[in-house]
Amino acid sequence: MTTSQTSATLGTAATSSSAAARPLRLFLGLDAAVTAGNGLIYLIAAGRGDLLDMDAGLLRGIGVFLTVYGVLVGVLAAQQVPSAAATKIVIEANLLWAVASIATALFGWFDPNTIGTVWIPMQALVVGAFAVLQINGLRKLTN
């Protein structure tokens, strides 16, 4: 094989990998935007104690965490081909968040008001859906 054939083969493989990564990048990007937005909502809710009727310090902590996490997921989504290992961490974190949120709703932890009681499982379903979409996107990339 000549150098030009090797370069063409590598270029085709990179293009193919990049195309296969598009759905995963989309799902990671949407996750990043929704998560960072959710973090900002928690930060706003912390300033308005009556919005979710939860401890302001807890809401600020969740808000900061989600905002930073969303930015980090956005950095991952911006990669031409996201790292499989980093993507698996995001998927696992999303699944853990969804399960913890459902447990919070079921067991009445933090005693939120009606808005919080509806908000917590709704965002758990969204986060769980992102995890499923990301699992499928990662499978397409690695197969």
Q: Order of helices and strands, N to C?
A: HHHH
Structural class: mainly alpha
Number of strands: 0
> Into which percentage range does the β-strand content fall?
under 5%
Helix content: over 70%
Largest sheet: none
Radius of gyration: 19 Å
Residue-averaged pLDDT, rounded? Answer: 89
Separation of the first and last Cα atoms: 26 Å
Return the domain count. Answer: 1
Q: Segments where pLDDT lies below 50 for 5+ residues?
A: none
Give the number of helices.
4
Q: Write down the overall geometry.
A: elongated
Question: How would you summarize this macromolecular structure in one to three sentences?
Answer:
84% of the residues lie in helices and 0% in strands.
Walk me through the structure.
The protein is an all-alpha fold. The protein starts with a helix and ends with a helix. Helix content is 84%, strand content 0%.
